[in-house]
Amino acid sequence: MSIFHLKRSKILQGQIDEFLNIVSRGSLVFRNGMREYLDGEIGSFEGTIAEISRLENQADELRRSIENQLYVHSLIPEIRGDVLGLLENMDVVINAEKKTLTQFSVEMPAVPSEYGKDYLALADACVNSAEAIVTAVRAFFHDFNMVKNYLHKVYFFEKEADKISDRLKRRIFASDLDLSRKIHLRYFALHIETISDHAEDVADRLGISTIKRSF
């Protein structure tokens, strides 16, 4: 069952759906950016950073507009706090994706080819986690009885990201690379990993909001 009934609430619904669409597109753009960087397609990679920056700005503007409507028009007051918290935490996900690509652009780590697949696998697990939380949050607004069916996927992919990151870091530190380079490569594994961590944070908050709404 949807929480949106009144006409003005329907307008809000459209904005929230568009916000979630932007976050979802940001995850796909992030995945492309990681592939481009690891494949050495730096020109395309820089264009991808510009694209995810544009999406992140759109998400920020839309989130502020939604927050304004919630307060000015006193919409869905019974769950307003939960909605604001969810949107703010979802915004953190796309922010983390943009920051991660930007750090690659700034520091340009030289990733040995034998680690490329692991970095890409880590990015894929994080994106899958982000995509799952988008689906779960969308369900919260339209059919919250389905939320739990999606939350477990967020946790699954977050654990997968942890496993891949741990394996990658162990391989790096077992190599003959200089210590400074090992630390640099580990830093970027940690940067990517934060995306699934943020998705997990949203899942934790969403789980509590769903329980509250069940009563």
Describe the structure.
The chain has 215 residues and is mostly helical. It is built from six helices and no strands. Helix 1 packs antiparallel against helix 2, helix 1 packs parallel to helix 3 and helix 1 runs antiparallel to helix 4. It is globular and about 60 Å long. The two termini are 14 Å apart.
CATH superfamily: Phosphate transport system protein phou homolog 2, domain 2
Low-confidence stretches: none
Write down the Rg. Answer: 19 Å
Query: How would you sum up the major sheet?
Result: none
| Number of alpha- plus pi-helical segments | 6
Order of helices and strands: HHHHHH
CATH domain class: Mainly Alpha
Strand count: 0
| Beta-strand share of residues | under 5%
How many domains comprise the coordinates? Answer: 1
Give the arrangement of secondary structure elements.
Elements: H1 7-38, H2 42-72, H3 80-107, H4 113-142, H5 147-173, H6 179-213
Helix pairs in contact: 1-2, 1-3, 1-4, 2-3, 3-6, 4-5, 4-6, 5-6
Short structural summary:
By secondary structure, this protein is mostly helical. The protein has helices at residues 7-38, 42-72, 80-107, 113-142, 147-173, 179-213. Helix content is 85%, strand content 0%.
